[in-house]
């Protein structure tokens, strides 16, 4: 019921939120898009940094107390809706990875995440999944974290599923695979500020501050003209905010801001990682429409 009520009033809420933050009014919704295979229409030579990629923050966080929940859909449902960046938090436990948000176990293991991604990519072989994997709520060494990750990667059922490389591949090379953005000693290129990434993830900025940081990062991404770094722009905040409540303010603002501009301004905007994006009608489609 909560979702149905919110979706009915999504346009009004977006307009109200935009007015509060001094953002452009909501424009007409983008054309209907097939969200499950939107990458299939793009050239294989397209560089990942040239895309606008919907993503989720703490993608596996659906359980526990209100502060621990950042999503209300499964990994499969996220991918079907157009999400192509997953933020996966893993706690090493007895030789496996348990998905966590802080201390809260999310009733899912890393193998469950891989199985859902694999099934989606088998059904949609021209898509790719960009996956950040990081250690969560654990004092285990990076060496142990790497050892457990390698044990998953080397399982026969996942042969060829996870791409580990020295740099960001073009879309054609990434198709049908999970592209690893690794932390905590994982192989391949590192997910961090540096030659490959420009990351905005200030979760303690509060809502007005976060909106400004989001806008600033969009401007930087646009100015890059799709060359150089892959921009990552998180809309999530903490610092006393429950993710559901903050997303009800920020997500409509994101959509209103994007829809307030026309032409080529809002292209190649990088990864936009969000809480509860499926609960805000048209948000993911608005981002997908910012691709060639």
UniProtKB/TrEMBL annotation:
Q: Known SMART domains for this protein?
A: PLCXc
Q: Which EC numbers does the record give? A: 4.6.1.13
Q: Which domain of life is it from?
A: Bacteria
Q: Which GO terms describe its biological process?
A: lipid metabolic process
What keywords is this UniProt entry annotated with? Signal
Reaction catalyzed = a 1,2-diacyl-sn-glycero-3-phospho-(1D-myo-inositol) = 1D-myo-inositol 1,2-cyclic phosphate + a 1,2-diacyl-sn-glycerol
Pfam families, from UniProt? PI-PLC-X
Q: Which residue positions does the secretion signal occupy?
A: 1-27
| Organism phylogeny | Bacteria, Bacillati, Actinomycetota, Actinomycetes, Kitasatosporales
Tell me the protein's name: 1-phosphatidylinositol phosphodiesterase
Top-level EC class as recorded in UniProt: lyase
* Gene Ontology molecular function terms on file: phosphatidylinositol diacylglycerol-lyase activity; phosphoric diester hydrolase activity
The species this protein belongs to is Streptomyces qinzhouensis
The answer to whether the entry has keyword Cell membrane is: no
Question: Residue limits of the Phosphatidylinositol-specific phospholipase C X domain?
Answer: 48-183
What PANTHER family does the entry give? PTHR13593, SI:DKEY-266F7.9 (PTHR13593:SF113)
């Amino acid at each position: 019921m909560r979702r149905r009520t919110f979706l009915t009033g999504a346009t009004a809420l977006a307009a109200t939120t935009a007015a509060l933050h001094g953002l452009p009014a909501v424009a007409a919704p983008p054309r209907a898009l097939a969200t499950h295979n939107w990458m299939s229409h793009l050239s294989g030579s397209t560089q990942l940094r040239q895309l606008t990629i919907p993503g989720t923050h703490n993608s596996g966080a659906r359980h526990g107390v209100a502060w621990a929940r950042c999503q209300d859909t499964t990994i499969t449902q996220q991918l079907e809706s157009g999400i192509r960046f997953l933020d996966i938090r893993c706690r090493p436990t007895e030789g496996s990875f348990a998905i966590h948000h802080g201390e809260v176990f999310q009733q899912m293991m890393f193998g469950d995440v891989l199985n859902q991604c694999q099934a989606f990519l088998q059904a949609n072989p021209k898509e790719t999944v960009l996956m950040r994997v990081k250690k969560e709520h654990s004092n285990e060494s990076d060496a142990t974290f790497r050892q457990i990750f390698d044990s998953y990667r080397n399982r026969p059922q996942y042969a060829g599923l996870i791409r580990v490389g020295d740099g960001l591949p073009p879309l054609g090379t990434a198709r049908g695979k999970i592209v690893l953005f690794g932390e905590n000693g994982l192989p391949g290129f590192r997910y961090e500020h540096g030659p490959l990434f420009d990351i905005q993830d200030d979760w303690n900025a509060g809502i007005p501050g976060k909106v400004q940081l989001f806008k600033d990062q969009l401007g930087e991404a646009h100015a890059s003209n799709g060359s150089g770094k892959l921009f990552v722009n998180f809309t999530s905040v903490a610092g006393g905010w429950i993710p559901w409540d903050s997303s009800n303010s920020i997500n409509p603002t994101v959509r209103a801001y994007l829809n307030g501009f026309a032409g080529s301004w809002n292209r190649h905007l990088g990864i936009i990682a969000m809480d509860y994006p499926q609960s805000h009608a048209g948000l993911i489609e608005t981002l997908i429409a910012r691709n060639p």
